[in-house]
Design goal:
The chain has about 375 residues and is an alpha/beta fold. The chain contains 18 helices and 13 strands. The termini are far apart.
Length: about 375
């Protein structure tokens, strides 16, 4: 069945409006990224529904109003578990749990190729999903396709570049990663404790157009660049530690993106973000279906909903953290100030101007060497 046949325009249509809830302060929002909870009780109509879908997702899906339209229009109860661990743990849970325990998961697309190779996730029919409404680059995102077959659909993404205090630095100041190595910012740089985005951005800084596909000499040079940065870095921490420290004024610069900047900026804190001239790397979440699910029809309907504009327009400005969204219809549903904040104002030129300078984050073939290099950096 095609997408339009399965779910009505009323469910996915741009006329639907997302609820207006008061925003929590950014510090609370950053802590909420790691919150783990089950879905709230359902209204009587849904509670009596005989069909369900079991979803393991990162934060945002649990917020009020996110899944209401799906449950009310389809009669499918969403059994939601919010995941506060790693992508590897999320995929392992689907792989090792009994069939049907988790019908749908939302890992980073960098982990999709290995999940496909291991037979963990199901092939999807591209015609079931609104990919024609997507930014072209995201619709054809390399990690979710294998041999011309689709295995996941991205529904949330963003970038790592530089997040900076605009009261201390101009856009010109931070237009290159050179600023991170300037003696004047020694000790004022904060990094999130994850090797893939940090080393990926520094690889772009070194001039590698494919930042995760490096020769031995290129990888050696990356290690040298990483160690050169070490004296500049005053904090390597988790999401809440870094964001709280920056919000409190302890640090001025980070290798990060709109998901940090938008929350602080929205709360009146003096931070902005940009992709430096050398480029940046992406982050994303891609929705996929278990290869062993006995509940594939409901799982597909759920993926259709979360790749549609109504859900994505809410997800873009979730209290957990902001994100860019790939469905262009969702982008135009956002208020103009939010579109500008998320680099979605000019959607017609988004692919050629904004995304052209970004590389998909991926898991490198010599992953263990990358991790060892990151540990050496942290322990220096």
């Amino acid at each position: 069945m095609k997408h339009d046949d399965l779910i009505t325009d009323e469910l996915f249509g741009a006329s639907s409006k997302f609820g207006s809830t008061s925003r929590r302060k950014f510090i609370s929002r950053s802590v909420a990224v790691g919150a783990s909870s089950l879905s709230i009780p359902f209204i009587s109509k849904i509670a009596q529904a005989s069909s369900t879908v079991n979803v393991l997702a990162f934060g945002g899906y649990e917020e009020p109003g996110m899944l209401t339209a799906f449950e009310e229009k389809t009669g499918i109860k969403v059994n939601l578990k919010i995941h506060d661990g790693s992508d590897e743990e999320m995929i392992a849970l689907m792989q090792t749990s009994a069939p049907g325990t988790f019908d749908v998961i939302t890992p980073t697309s960098a982990y999709i190729p290995k999940a496909v190779e291991d037979g963990i996730i199901a092939e999807l029919d591209p015609s079931d999903f609104p990919l024609d409404d997507y930014f072209n680059l995201i619709a054809n995102w390399p990690p979710v396709w294998k041999s011309g077959k689709l295995y996941a659909v991205v529904n949330r993404f963003g970038y790592y570049g530089i997040t900076y205090n605009y009261e201390k630095f101009s856009e010109s100041d931070v237009s290159s990663y050179d600023i991170l190595f300037d003696p004047s910012v020694k000790g004022r740089v904060a990094l999130f404790d994850w090797f893939l985005p940090n080393m990926g951005c520094l690889s772009k800084y070194n001039g590698n157009k494919k930042p995760y596909d490096l020769t031995a000499s290129e990888f050696s040079a990356l290690g040298e660049t990483l160690m050169k940065l070490r004296p500049q870095v005053g904090l390597v921490g988790n999401t809440s530690q870094v964001t709280q420290a920056m919000a409190g004024g302890s640090y001025d610069l980070a290798i990060a993106g709109e998901w940090v900047q938008a929350g602080m900026y929205d709360d009146g804190l003096p931070f902005k973000a940009l992709v430096p001239e050398q480029g940046g790397v992406t982050w994303d979440q891609a929705v996929c279906v278990s290869a062993k699910t006995p509940n594939k029809e409901n799982a597909i309907k759920f993926v259709q909903y979360v790749t549609g504009p109504t859900f994505q327009s809410k997800l873009a400005i979730a209290k957990t953290y902001y994100s860019m969204v790939p469905n262009k219809k969702a982008a135009v549903m956002l208020p103009e100030d939010k579109r500008e904040l998320l680099n979605l104002s000019n959607i017609e030129k988004f692919d050629e101007i904004f995304m052209a300078n970004l590389s998909p984050r991926k898991s490198p073939d010599n992953r263990d060497e990358w991790m060892a290099s990151w540990e050496k950096f942290k322990n220096a």
